[in-house]
Design a protein that fits this description.
The complex is a heterodimer of chains A (521) and B (389).
Chain A: H1 3-14, H2 23-55, H3 84-116, H4 122-137, H5 140-152, E1 169-171, E2 174-177, E3 179-182, H6 186-214, H7 220-238, H8 245-258, H9 261-287, E4 288-289, E5 292-293, H10 298-320, H11 322-332, H12 346-353, E6 363-366, E7 370-372, E8 377-379, E9 384-387, H13 388-414, H14 418-426, H15 431-461, H16 473-484, H17 487-516
Antiparallel strand pairs in A: 1-2, 2-9, 3-6, 4-5, 7-8
Helix pairs in contact in A: 3-13, 3-15, 3-16, 4-13, 5-13, 6-7, 8-12, 9-10, 9-11, 13-15, 14-15, 15-17, 16-17
Chain B: H1 2-32, H2 38-47, H3 53-67, H4 71-78, E1 81-85, E2 88-89, E3 93-95, E4 101-102, H5 104-117, E5 123-127, H6 133-138, E6 144-150, H7 153-157, E7 161-163, E8 168-170, E9 172-177, E10 195-199, H8 203-215, E11 220-224, H9 227-236, E12 241-245, H10 246-256, E13 263-266, E14 274-281, H11 285-304, H12 311-316, H13 321-326, H14 343-350, H15 354-362
Parallel strand pairs in B: 1-5, 1-6, 10-11, 10-12
Antiparallel strand pairs in B: 2-3, 3-4, 6-14, 7-14, 8-14, 9-12, 9-13
Helix pairs in contact in B: 1-2, 1-3, 2-3, 5-11, 5-14
Classes of the chains: A mainly alpha (521), B alpha/beta (389).
Chain lengths: 521, 389
């Protein structure tokens, strides 16, 4: 290669390429164009919808949340809601109850069936297989309607009817089982439990260290349970001494109530800036090597800009929508929100619950009862009553999801190599210890991500309640938009609600997922 | 060689850019109007990249079509009337095994089709639940609702509907089992503790909530998508009481228990006023006029004794000038409304007058006009039409 050639090459390398071939420019252009396209599409759709609605003289806005609904709800925290917002809240609580209760029950049932399918007992194995195949292969809607119809065909409630052994009552009004009532001194007792848990944790850690140091069996978990149990037992009688906790919450509520909107806006803005700064610093710290800061790629820059822009958006929203701040103030403080019929904000509620003068037993277990107020006997408030609709949706989603969870669990256990079992046996671990210490931790890694998907499915599937008239948020929302005509707004609320639920579940599952991950060094 | 290659790349880049623009135009069009066959607008955008204008104009046309066109002209050019009905309201609109609709409301759909298009069969029926119906009108999925819809202030103003003349004056009642101690003279105050069922998204759920609160009784109100499910649950026993418009209860009872006395309907005086009639979107005054005057034409024909049997004779020798005008004679006003001169003659000939439509469907389930609010105004009822002049 001659000298001139080399010089040309060097010159070519020094010159920047034309902009349309410059990778940096193109990358940025693509990002900006993509962002603009998305924003433009959203803007276009919004103006179109707005224009169409205006042309049809349909009023838009969320004022309807504070106006009277005029209808009753079949079941929920408030069956006679005064406002549409309160009705939607009631429906949302029903959905959340269904989701949480469903996730717990479906997990327990699914794990049992999944392990059962691997059992060496032929009958258990076959029964679990039949369960899984039945549940997985029949549409959920059909199952829900089937359960609904089966419950409807049960005998009617009679005032003289006796629950089965006083524990379970089945009739066409649904299912009634014993219920644990949170009664008078529960929250003060909770303080005892909290302290017990902290002390127990400290004891457990000491015992663990002792075990590590000496190799003696020190029963760490057992000692934790013993400490907690001791505190619970003492607290059962001594809980009134924590009456003063309520006063602290009351003080916080008073302070929040005395804050002005501007302060809240300032706090939100400060938090947004702090969050962005924290994120960017952490991000940069990760890019830092012993040799100094690595060169930031365009992608890195874009992420940093995105974080900064995000906090700017939050600040703009907080400043331009002052009502948001006042709603937050009301929700947190002691005043409550009128149209949601909250007498208290969060801290006001806490101060009432933890307040003085609550001397009764913390919890109370009652058996189902039947009361007759008018012509018709009904389940009374003592038992935990699953109405026909609730029972159908609940058992429907639980059984259906349990079928899938069982398969996930089975797959996860089978995914652990056989060598692990053999190695555990070789070092002489007992079967239970082997499962707990060797097999399950590895199986969990495989199980967790698909399990999270099933939780999301379960939550979303509860919206099938509309088929049988159970008042979940979709059913209530439909009633609301029929009485007020605010279809788009209600649909927006549904979307936000389900998005929030799904994201919450994802965050929780991901937290465990990260903890379970194999730590690679 | 390299020169050619570069040219090729540039040509491809330009083509890509054009495709991108075309695709984004097509996308926007789809999202604005999902009914406008999205596949058709999206596909050319991707395939014919050298004609970016084509999909864009398609989308624009579609928007124009649905927004600016007069509904009456749209229906005439479409050749069919899209009519929303219940499909599950005994004697008002019942879906037949072959998919057709029969009943009082269905016949009023046919009457409007006969007036606009001259053909009573040019109706596309869409069965809608109570919860879907207003959205269906707002989105233009149906032109008019003949779906026993109660005229209320809120629906007329806030929900964005307009209401035609009432075709049936109804009132909400309750139905319970005689075995539970109910009779025809029972009152709302007797229903304490009951599970009361009705359909969701109706005025009935508001009325019963108000009535129970006024009577001071506690009830559990369960609402379901349509009244078929409500009735099924009542038969199975999941519901102690069902409540809806009295006419629907009578219809259900007639269907399920033709001669039984186990189901009783009470209270004697309905707990609400339920004026039922045609419902359409706001700001379509030409179409609204046509619907309203089709209903009035059937009422006027009833007053003047014009029936589907004698309408030809009546048109030839009208009993008075008004009847002559109504049937398309000298001085008719139908042409000015954008209809054929003989529009209402078609209505009476193909569908019938008010009394014929009423008797055909409602008499057989035990609802009669005599003595009710649905008698003609000359017989002490509320069925009344303004003069056709």
């Amino acid at each position: 290669m001659s000298n001139t050639d080399q010089a040309t090459l060097a010159a070519t390398q020094a010159r920047r390429p034309p902009f349309y071939r410059d990778a940096t420019v193109l990358k940025w252009l693509a990002q900006v164009v993509a962002l603009l396209l998305v924003l433009f599409t959203l803007f276009f759709l919004a103006t179109q919808a707005q224009g169409n609605l205006e042309e049809k003289k349909i009023a838009t806005g969320f004022d309807f949340l504070g106006t009277a609904l005029g209808s009753d709800l079949g079941s929920g925290i408030d069956t006679d809601p005064h406002t549409s917002g309160r009705a939607l809240l009631s429906g949302a609580v029903n959905t959340i109850r269904l989701a949480i209760g469903g996730i717990i029950a479906a997990t327990i049932l699914g794990v049992l069936v999944g392990v059962g399918r691997l059992s060496s007992n032929w009958v258990v194995k076959r029964m679990c297989s039949v369960f899984v195949e039945t549940m997985r292969n029949i549409p959920l809607l059909v199952q829900i309607i089937l359960i609904f119809v089966v419950i409807a065909s049960l005998p009617r409630v009679e005032a003289v009817g006796e629950p089965i052994h006083g524990w379970l009552h089945l009739s066409n009004k649904g299912v009634s089982i014993p219920r644990v009532h949170i009664s008078d001194g529960f929250y003060q007792w909770l303080v005892f439990l909290l302290i017990g848990a902290l002390v127990g944790r400290w004891v457990m850690r000491r015992r663990l260290r002792l075990h590590d140091d000496t190799g003696r069996e020190t029963y760490p978990v057992l000692s934790f349970a013993a400490v907690l149990g001791a505190f619970a037992a003492v607290g059962w009688f001594a809980h009134p001494i924590f009456g003063w906790v309520g006063a602290i919450f009351g003080l916080v509520a008073d302070i929040i109530d005395s804050l002005s909107q501007t302060v809240v806006q300032a706090v939100i803005s400060a938090l947004a800036v702090a969050a962005a700064v924290w994120w960017i610093r952490r991000f940069l710290a990760r890019r830092r090597t012993p040799a100094g800061l690595t060169k930031l790629t365009d992608d890195d820059r874009f992420r940093i800009i995105f974080a900064a822009a995000g906090s700017a958006v939050v600040i703009v929203v907080a400043v331009t929508v002052p009502s948001l701040s006042s709603v937050l103030l009301d929700l947190a403080g002691g005043r409550g929100i009128d149209w949601l019929r909250f007498d208290n904000g969060f801290f006001g509620w806490l101060s009432e619950k933890f307040g003085n003068g609550r001397t009764g037993a913390p919890i109370d277990v009652k058996r189902p009862d039947i009361e007759q107020l008018g012509n018709f006997p009904n389940y009374g408030p003592s038992g935990l009553n699953l109405t026909q609709g609730l029972a159908a949706v609940y058992f429907g989603v639980v059984l259906y999801t349990a079928g899938f969870i069982a398969e996930i669990v089975r797959g996860g256990i089978l995914a652990v190599p056989k060598g692990q079992t053999e190695a555990a046996q070789a070092v002489g671990l007992r079967r239970v210890t082997m499962l707990r210490r060797v097999i399950l931790p590895q199986a969990f890694r495989v199980i967790l991500p698909p399990l999270g998907n099933q939780y999301l499915n379960l939550t979303k599937n509860t919206s099938l309640a509309i088929a049988i008239g159970y008042t979940d948020i979709v059913q209530v929302g439909q009633t609301v938009y029929n009485q007020t005509g605010k279809t788009l707004e209600v649909v927006a609320i549904w979307m936000l609600f389900y998005l929030a639920c799904s994201l919450t579940i994802s965050v929780v599952v991901n937290f465990f997922n990260v903890r379970m991950k194999i730590v690679e060094r | 060689m390299t020169h050619n290659k570069r040219l090729l790349w540039r040509a491809l880049a330009v083509l890509f850019a054009v495709t991108l623009i075309a695709a984004s135009c097509g996308d926007d069009g789809d999202d604005v109007d999902s009914t406008a066959a999205p596949a058709e607008t999206a596909e050319p955008a991707a395939d014919d990249a050298d004609e970016p204008d084509a999909p864009a104009t398609t989308a624009a046309d579609v928007i124009e079509d649905t927004q600016d066109g007069d509904l009456l002209d749209t229906i005439i050019s479409r050749g069919r009337l899209n009519c929303g009905v219940s499909g599950a309201a005994v004697a008002f609109s019942e879906t037949q095994p072959d998919g057709s609709q029969t009943g009082f409301d269905a016949d009023y759909c046919r009457a409007v089709a006969a007036a606009i298009l001259g053909d009573a069969d040019a109706v596309e029926f869409t069965p809608l639940t109570a919860a879907e119906r207003f959205t269906a009108v707002q989105t233009g999925a149906v032109d008019v609702l003949m779906r026993n819809t109660t005229w209320t202030q809120g629906r007329d103003t806030e929900v964005g509907m307009d209401f035609g003349p009432t075709t049936y004056y109804d009132g909400q009642q309750l139905m319970a089992r005689a075995g539970d101690g109910f009779s025809g003279s029972s009152q709302v105050s007797d229903i304490g503790g009951a599970v009361v069922c009705t359909n969701a998204g109706t005025t009935t759920e508001q009325n019963i909530a108000d009535a129970a609160a006024a009577a001071g009784v506690d009830i559990t109100l369960n609402t379901f998508e349509d009244f078929d499910i409500v009735t099924t649950n009542f038969i199975q026993g999941a519901c102690d009481i069902v409540t809806t418009d009295g006419s629907a209860l009578v219809g259900r009872k007639a269907n399920q228990q033709p001669d039984g006395e186990e189901w009783v309907i009470f209270p004697p005086t309905p707990i609400s006023k339920e004026p039922l009639g045609p419902t359409y979107g706001q700001n379509e005054s030409r179409f609204a006029d046509v619907v309203n005057w089709t209903v009035y034409a059937t009422i006027l024909a009833d007053e003047k004794g014009i029936t589907s049997a004698n309408v030809d004779d009546m048109a030839a020798n009208p009993p008075d000038a008004e009847a002559g005008r109504l049937l398309g004679g000298e001085g008719e006003l139908q042409s000015a409304m954008g209809l054929a001169p003989d529009a209402f003659w078609q209505v009476i000939r193909q569908v019938g007058n008010y009394d014929e439509i009423y008797s055909r469907h409602l008499n057989k389930v035990g609802l009669t006009r005599e003595g009710s609010a649905n008698a003609g105004w000359l017989d002490g009822g509320l069925i009344y039409a303004p003069p056709a002049r």
